[in-house]
Specification:
Shape: globular
Strand content: 25-35%
Number of strands: 10
Radius of gyration: 17 Å
Low-confidence stretches: none
Mean pLDDT: 96
Order of helices and strands: EEEHEEHEHHHEHEHEE
Bound molecules: adenosine-5'-triphosphate, magnesium ion
Distance between the termini: 20 Å
Helix content: 25-40%
Number of helices: 7
Length: 222
């Protein structure tokens, strides 16, 4: 599903050059739920951003869903992202001025040929899946952390993505809410067969996935 070959990412600022990823070769299979662990600064978010086509590698190639994506134009990349990928972040990244349901609908706004009625219907279905049908008219700041993250998950799944990339999705949540969010992701992986790559610092969460990949200093160590 995701094949990274010889991926390198170098960040250059005026004074310092950081090799955030050093020759990464990694294959994620369709339907897999993989956890990525490692100390702060070892390159986990960089890796996820590159897999999510949010940032380009300095070197190397990415094949996703049998497509060589490294060579795609910005426009085609954006389309590919919108159709195939869903994102979940530690700090939710919801828009505070939009209601829950409007936040969830956002990814479909960028797709052609979906009517307003269809968008609403699918947003309600996604919110039902995450157990938030009763909160559609609320605003993000009227929700608990766990509820906000579930809205973010509804937004990530509304477009039926084949791949979900989650960067410390339970990082801001207490253990009960974290567990709820984790169970939801396990359910998506099991019932919809969604491929999930999740960065986590939490051993207990990582243990529930099918494979744990350890990073250190920009490299995969196990
Ligand atoms: N935009 C940037 N410009 C310069 N350096 C960066 C940039 N983004 C990340 N880095 C550097 O790249 C390295 C990897 O950062 P990254 O955010 O991928 O780490 P991480 O493993 O996600 O850490 P954490 O667990 O703290 O989130 C770090 O040394 C960081 O300082
Ligand atoms: Mg990070």
């Amino acid at each position: 599903m995701i094949h990274l070959s010889n991926i390198e990412k170098v960040y250059r600022t005026k004074t310092i050059e950081t090799i955030a990823l050093n020759n990464i070769n990694l294959n994620i299979n369709k339907g897999e739920f993989v956890a990525i662990m490692g100390p702060s600064g070892c390159g986990k978010s960089t890796l996820l951003n590159i897999m999510g086509l949010l940032d380009a590698p300095t070197r190397g190639s990415i094949v996703m869903d049998d497509q060589q994506v490294t060579a795609l134009s910005r426009k085609k990349l954006a389309l590919f992202r919108n159709l195939k990928l869903g994102f979940i972040f530690q700090s939710y990244h919801l828009i505070n001025d939009l209601s829950v349901i409007d936040n969830v609908e956002l990814p479909l706004l960028y797709r052609k040929g979906i009517s307003g009625t269809e968008r609403r219907k699918r947003a309600l279905e996604a919110l039902e899946k995450v157990g938030l049908s009763a909160r559609t008219k609320h605003y993000p700041n009227q929700l608990s952390g766990g509820q906000r993250q579930r809205v973010a998950i509804a937004r990530a799944i509304i477009g039926n993505p084949e791949i979900i990339l989650a960067d410390e999705p339970t990082g801001n949540l207490d253990s009960a809410m974290g567990e709820e969010v984790m169970n939801l992701m396990l359910h998506l992986n099991k019932t919809d067969g969604t491929t999930i790559v999740m960065v986590t610092h939490d051993e207990l969460m990582a243990k529930k996935t099918q494979r744990v990949i350890h990073f250190f200093d920009g490299q995969q160590v196990s």
